[in-house]
Amino acid sequence: MTFAENLRRLRVERFLSQRELARQAGLHAVTLARLEAGVTAPSTRSVRALAATLGVEPRELATPDEVIELRRVLKNTASGRRTT
């Protein structure tokens, strides 16, 4: 599962809206929506805040390698490059 899929699954399992999870984690609701949609890569701080709020270890959301790869893919996509 991807970070976005894990985040959504854990949020829904805890019966939290995006807005409520964002509030509890100290994030903006739009940021959380973009993270769940997979259009924004999370910062380390965001992963930690979300994991703490959801009561899981950060690695249950994403490994550091997954975050780095997501950032690379999104950066290349934004610049118009193809990724393989």
Structure, described:
The protein has one domain (3-78): lambda repressor-like DNA-binding domains (434 Repressor (Amino-terminal Domain), Orthogonal Bundle). The chain has 6 helices and no strands. It has helices at 3-13, 18-25, 29-37, 44-54, 58-61, 64-78. The chain starts with a helix and ends in a 6-residue tail after the last helix.
Largest sheet: none
Kindly give the count of domains.
Answer: 1
- The CATH topology, please? 434 Repressor (Amino-terminal Domain)
The portion of residues assigned to helices is 55-70%
Mean pLDDT: 89
Question: C-alpha Rg, in Å?
Answer: 13 Å
CATH homologous superfamily grouping: lambda repressor-like DNA-binding domains
The CATH architecture can be named as Orthogonal Bundle
Low-confidence region ranges: none
* Number of helices in the DSSP assignment: 6
- The helix/strand class is mainly alpha
Shape: globular
Distance between the termini: 19 Å
The total strand number stands at 0
Q: Helix and strand succession?
A: HHHHHH
The proportion of residues in beta strands is under 5%
* CATH class term: Mainly Alpha
